[in-house]
Amino acid sequence: MQTKAIYLTILMLVTVIFNVSYAESSSQHPVYAGFKLVSDSSTLKERREVNIYLPKRYAESSSNYPVLYILDGQWHFMNAIAVQQSLKAQFTKAIPEMIVVAIINKEPNRRNWFGANSEQFSKYLKDELIPHIDSNYRTQPTRILFGWEMGAFFSSSLISQYPSLFEGVILSNGGEIDKEALLNIDKNLAQPLYLYVANSERDVYTIKYGNALANLLANNPLKQLHWRFEKFNQETHQSTPYIALYKGLMNIFQNYRLPEFVSIEEFKERGGLPYLNDYFKKRGERFGVEKVISDKTKNHLIWLALNDDDYSAFDLFMREFSDVLATQRYNAVFWQNRIALFYLRHENTTKAQQYFEQAIVKFPDSALLYNGLGKVFKAIGAKDKAHKNFTKAISIAEQSADNNLPQYQADLASIDVTQ
Predict the structure, then answer these.
(1) Domains of the chain
(2) Is the pTM for the entire model greater than 0.85?
């Protein structure tokens, strides 16, 4: 689903940057997708073009943002925007919102700047472009660099010289680091560095470099270097970078996204609440966000416990996540009824009665809640009270044309108050 969303976003953004929105009234309105910065470089002795994308709420916020630097911005600017838009979307939030800086490098100068004149281009990045971006925009120290093909070889050379210039580096279809350069990285790395390398066996031009780099890193582990090498063997030299950018960002921000589980069993296998508390503590320390378990994660686990019919986990979450139960999400008939019925199904009639009675105070016109409370009284043998609540549910249902009326009538008929 995420991959599909990414390509849909790419298509949308391509339309946005080259066209304008078209309403049914045929009125036209420009749509923002970024802007171009053109300046003279004293280092490169030429005019340089850079495309910049700012997060949607940049102007109205006071937040500082990580910066994603894209080499070969003439090709990968739109992909960078699309990937970060889809991954930081409201329900995904796999990565933080970022400023995107796409450096335009056209042939034939591109090969010179990434090859014979790479020292000058490194100086341009380090001493001109990055200071300019940091001085003129609200940035965080977190910088990510993406390079493809020649740009990947340049990027690997750059981090060999300046290991702490970027926190994350994505190399697609290229990259080369020798043993001496690796020792320099180890010696001068002042912070953790996240390195992601992607290639394909179909890329006969560069796959040997990817394999060699992976072997070097595997045989010479560095404490501060976190790396991953992945092959996408159905892709080619030209198509791999589009996947590499997506997968690379996911890897670099691997502990930013909120953890999810396919089952309560998986939650327990990962370490349960101690694991979760440690995850959010480290997440908060790295990214400067809250160090407590998020409401979304709490909601996810409560839902799983209900779906898995795991009473012990559910009871644990009811006690540990009492704060989230007071949020607006649970202030609804659906949730109050579902929680109460879960307790009833597991024979905790005290809790079930408590939830139903509290909910009826908030939602006095809910036939569903009165019927549920009737079931509780039936379970504990209080037939008169069960009869009273079933009757109340039927009365409300008849007035509101409730589709559940036949079930309420059947529940009433199931008790015999004459005995």
Answers:
(1) 2-252 (3.40.50.1820), 265-413 (1.25.40.10)
(2) no
